[in-house]
Structures are given as C-alpha cells and as structure tokens.
Amino acid sequence: MTVSDILLIAIKALGGIALFIYGMTMLGRGLEKISGGKMEKILSGLTSNIFKSVCLGAVVTAAVQSSGATTVIIVGMVNAGILKLSSAIGVIMGANIGTTVTGQILRLAGLESSADTNLFLQLLNPRYLAPIVSVVGLVIFMLSKNDIRKSLGETLIGLGILFTGMLSMTDSVEPLSELEAFRNLFETLSNPILGVIAGAAVTALLQSSSASVGILQAISQSGALKASSAFPIIMGQNIGTCVTSIISAAGASKNAKRAAMVHLYFNVIGTVVFLAAVYTIKATVGFPFWDDPINMGGIANFHTFFNITVTILFLPFTKLLEKLACITIRDKEETSEESGETAFNALDDRFLKSPALAIQQSHNAVVKMGKLALRNFTEMRKLFDSENFNDKTVERLKETEESIDRMEDRLNVYLVKLTECELTDYENRRVTELLHLNSEFERIGDYAMNLIEMAEKLHDLDVVFSDSAMHELTVISDAVQDIIGMAVDTVKNNDISLAMRIEPLEETVDFLNETLKSRHIERLKNGECVVESGINFLDLLINLERISDHCSNIAVYVMSAQKKKDMLNRHEYIQSRHESSDEEYIDLTEQYMAKYSL
Predict the structure, then answer these.
(1) Can you tell me the distance from the alpha carbon of 109 to that of 203, in angstroms, rounded to the nearest whole number?
(2) 241 with 322, same domain?
(3) 394 and 313 within one domain
(4) For 386-399, what is each residue's pLDDT tens digit?
(5) How many domains does the chain have?
(6) Domain residues for 151?
(7) Per-residue pLDDT tens over the stretch 540-575
(8) Burial class (CB in 10 A: 0-12, 13-18, 19+), 516
(9) What is residue 293's three-state secondary structure?
C-alpha cells in the first residue's frame, strides 16, 4: 500500500468522522427539541434519593445523546443553586450509563445480511436503514409545520447521517487491516496505561465519549482490534469525557466546580478500580477471548457493562465522593461576592445547550423581577406616612431598584444570546414575550422609584397631604398594588384567564386617576392643600396610572404568547374590551369599582 493510498484512506475516514459527529449532533438536537426541555426541568425537582437521580440522569443522557451535555447542564444547575451537589452526583453517575445507548444503537452497523436473512433483519442493517430513515425524516421535515414533527424529521435525518458516517468510517478503515503497522499500533495499546491515555486523549479532543466509542466500533470492523486493546481504551474514554464539564465549571461557583470534580473522580477512580479488577482476573483465571478480535457488539456491551458496574460499585460511596470534591475545592476559595445567590445566577450560558431550559430560567428571572418591583411598591407606600418614613428603608429600596436595573440588562443580554440558538417557532415567541415582559417590569420598578423619590422630597420639605388626600392615595394605591400582583401571577403561571381580569382593573385605575385629579384640583382652589403637596399629588397619580398601563401591557403580551400570535395590537385590544358588551368584563369592572370606591 502506497503513501497516496494511505492518504486517500485518511481523507475518507476523516469525512466519515465528520458525518458521524454531525449526525450525532443533529440527532441529539432533534431529540432535545422533541423533549422541549422537559427532561432537564425534571432534574431541578430531584430529591436526595440517589437511585432516582441515577435513573433520571441515564434517561436524560439517552435522550440528548451526550453525557457531556448532561454534565454541563448539571454544572449550570449547581452553579445557579437549582440543584444540590448531593443530588448532582447521582445524575452524573446516571449520565455515564445513558451515554452507552449510542454504542448499542451503532452496533446495528455490525449486522450481517445475506439472501437467507429475514427481510426485516436486513432492513435493520444501516446500509439499508440509513437511507430509509433519512428519506422518511426529510419528508416529515419538509411537509410538517408543527414544531414537534419537524424535530422528529430532524432526528431521523440525524440518525441517517450518523449511520452513513459510521459506514464511511468502517469502509475506509477496512483496507488498513492489511498493514502490519496498523495491527502493531493496537498491539501497543494493549498496554493498559497507554490504552487508557489514548482513549482519554481522543475523547478529550472530540469532547464526546459517544463519538470516540463510535470511532472505535468502526475500527473494530477491520478485525485489527483485540479485546485486550479495546478494554483499556474504553475505560480511558470515560475519563476523557470529563474535560467538557471541567471546562464548563471555569469561573463558576465552588459547588459547580465540585460537581465537575465529582465527575472526574468518579470516572478516574472507577477506571483504576475496574482496570485493577480486570487485570487481576486476567492474571489469575484468564479470559478466553482476550486475544480475539472484538466486534461492534462486544465494544457496546463492554462499554455498558463497565459503566453500570462502576455506578453500582460507587452508589454506597456518594458521600465520600462529595467529601473528596469539597476537600479539593475548599470553602476559603469562595469570595463574599460568590456566596450570595441571586435569581440571575440561573441565567447560565451552560443552559444555552438546552434552549427550552434556558427559556424556563429566563421566565423565572422575569417573575423574580416582578416580585421585586411589587415589593418595592408595597414598601414605598409606607414612606408617605411621615411617622413611618425611614432613611434606611429608602436606601434599601434604592438598592433593590438598582438590582432590578442590573437584572434587566443581564436578562436582555441572555435573551439575545438565546436568539442565536436554534429555536422552534414556539421558543422564538417565548423569547420575544420575555424581552417585552423584562422591559415592562423594569419600567414598573422605575415608576416605583419615582414615587420613592417623591416621598423623600416631601419628607425633606416637611410637606404632608391632607387626610382626604391620604385616604384617596390609599384607595388608588390598593388598586395599583393589586394589579401589579395580578400581573406577576399572570406571568408566573402563564394564566390567560387571570390576564383577562387585568384590563377591567386598569380601567378602574384610570377612572380613579381622573376622579382624584378633579378632586385635588378643587382642594387646591379651595385652599385645602398647599401648592407643593398639590403638584406632587398630581405627579403621584400620573406615576400610579402609568404603572397600571404597564400591567395592562404585560397581560397583552401573555395573551399574545398563549394565543400563538406575534403580538396583539394593544390599543385595538383595549378599545375592543372597553367597548365590549361582554357580561364578564362588565361585571368585573363593576366589582372593581365597588371594591375601590372613594
């Protein structure tokens, strides 16, 4: 075999690897979209039950076809405080089991077909299965408008490309079996240390144990790979996959770094223990298949057996793994800034691997913003009573408003990053909705801040409102506080029925605003109020009315998303509701008018 022949084989092999990895990525992406992020969301509800954690970790990894993606998401969840380190350990163990599913699927490429073979079994051979699933997937993808069905089509196309890449790798490697140097290479890797290092290095480079196992399965078809060489390489592949989680933990909290270290320790110690056991048995009892060529099925079976055995072995020692990680990443490394958990720790770039999960975390952050704005408004009301005015309270409320502003900036950046991901139509609508909601809650916080500054100004000038003005202010503030609470709950629960109750209350606030303006102007004319308090009272009413307007906007955005529309025309919607003869709307308006009667 000439050098040019070897070069052509290498080019063909690299092309097969490229197709294989792209197919695996496309398959995982399609499965992720079908799951809609639900599997990852389940992880956040884990208990300390280690068996449940292991099972869920295996299921999620089997679904997304990547233990690296699972562990990165887990590191992000631990960093955000969504998942405890103790629960994360079980998920990491389960991820190692889930990733073996890919190898079991790929073993289909090793099926032999002949004229005597059952037609069904022949169709399972990837040489026939790959084009079938690709064509079916393409038809579904091209003809479907539904996001889930399009994702199903993408998944099938990915599976077809994956098998095509596997077959290309297998065909390209087969001629190399004639080379003595090629066989000697794998004889060298029968040395357990070299085998483990080679497996770890290739997996670290590809950042996917599933991909490196697939390449090993393709090589096995040449007949040059023996069990003695394959076993240490497979064990090393488990170590190499830890690189992904270690890189993702850079700059994260101490517990996130500990989660990455647990992944490393689990795989390194598991490999050492299993390697020692295998070679002890080899030296004493021996393996009859040790020097025999290993096929695709043998590699898949050993990979699965190895990971399940190591997981079972470590189940009683999860606390020890956690303690070892805590010793490695000590508490003193944590700065005071890192120790404070905020809602926006959940806006972790690691979650962008799963857009549905990232959208859910963004939604939670928007709700948190709304709650902070509501809390500021509620606390602000006390400041207009001169007896309750407190400089420390003012300072605390200003700090909260600064937090809301920082949250808005952080969330805007995060949502823009999300738009760069591959999103379904529904996910695109959700991101648009969250961008609008983020802005609306920030504006509510700003108007609450205006009211705080007015209270501070009145206190400094020693100006107080009359009893009648204070009573009126209490009534309209009650209505505005309620409408903010309704807006927050509407967003929190994506509750369209509650959203439809907001507009009647907003109309009530508008009515109160106009009525109180007229009354206060009469008091000014009659000399019942001084000019300083009169002007500020009118400014207060303007800010309160604008807050209710933003709550109305929030209701419209939620309804737009739920009704699968890009955006309802707010003015047309409000006008139609105001002019509506809908009995429910009229009844609600009357109820609110009675509740907030002057």
Answers:
(1) 21
(2) yes
(3) no
(4) 677 888 888 888 88
(5) 2
(6) 11-329
(7) 999 999 999 999 999 988 888 776 655 555 566 666
(8) buried
(9) strand
